[in-house]
Every structure is written in structure tokens, then in C-alpha cells.
Design goal:
Strand content: 15-25%
Largest sheet: 5 strands, mixed
Helix content: 25-40%
Mean pLDDT: 82
Low-confidence stretches: 14-34
Shape: globular
Strand order of the largest sheet: 3-2-1-4-5
Order of helices and strands: HHHEEEEHHEHH
Number of helices: 7
Radius of gyration: 15 Å
Length: 166
Amino acid sequence: MSPPVACFGIKPLTSLSTTMTQGLQLAGTRRGIMDTDEAKITAMFATLPALLDADAALVARGCLFSVQCLLGTMDRPLHVTFASGRIIDVTPGPLLMRSWRFSYRASPMAWAEFWKAPPRPGWHDLLALTKSGEAVLEGDLLPFMTHLQYFKDVLALPRFKPMVLA
């Protein structure tokens, strides 16, 4: 595995911050026990920074991508901050008054199907999930559409990681 590449001085997120881990635990206790599927999906999103840092070519492709967005499930979205192609912050939401440029949220079943290797037809693409009504894309679509292939590839990273979602 090659060392993480720094892009425009942004250092890679080497491990999940204790703040995020505490936030995920707090979010679960604040809302009662998290649904098992939602907890698994949230845990998969928590692995995205490490998976992205392990793919130097993908980080280099996203070198000009910096945005704050809302990702995750419909009921328990996460605030994700991209800076120069890296995920530098993942915070459980929704948080009052926290801004984001766009939001991409889907049902837990949609994420589980999307991350299967290989996914079934209709569950293989972010825009296909939106068209079928399993996902919602909201907000300023310019950063999303400008970096569409990069964003699709980042969200597909868990497909190549062994997981237990069923």
C-alpha cells in the first residue's frame, strides 16, 4: 500500500477522530437504540475516509473537490467535509445551522444493495437510485455534477471492502 498523497497541503485523515466516534455513540443514545441496518450503514460511512486515503489515484482525481455535504440515510444523515479530494470530517447529523452544499441520502436498503459486489441492475448507480425513488438528491447540484464520477467512485469504495450488511 502506497503512503497517502498530500494534495494542496491537506493531510490525510489517518484514523477516525474520537469526536466522530463519540458523536456516533451520542447520536445513537439520543435517538434511542439505532436500527441495526442504519447502524451498519453509518459504520460503513465511517470507513470512507480510510478507504479513500488508501486509493491515491482517486485522491489525485479529486484534488480540486472541496465541499461540505450531507450523506447517509434518510433519517440519520452525516455531515461530510471533502477538502482537496480527501474526507477530512464526518459528523453525525442532522445538526442545527450546519450548512451543506448538497445532500445525497438513501434508504438503508438502497445503500446495502448499492454496496454489494456486484450490485443488481437499478441499484448500481447513484442517479439510478434517485430515479427509482430510493434516494434523494437536494441542494446545489453544481459541485455534485461537476465531480460526478469522482463522487460515484468514492461512494462505491465500500463495495470492494468485505462487509456484513445482510
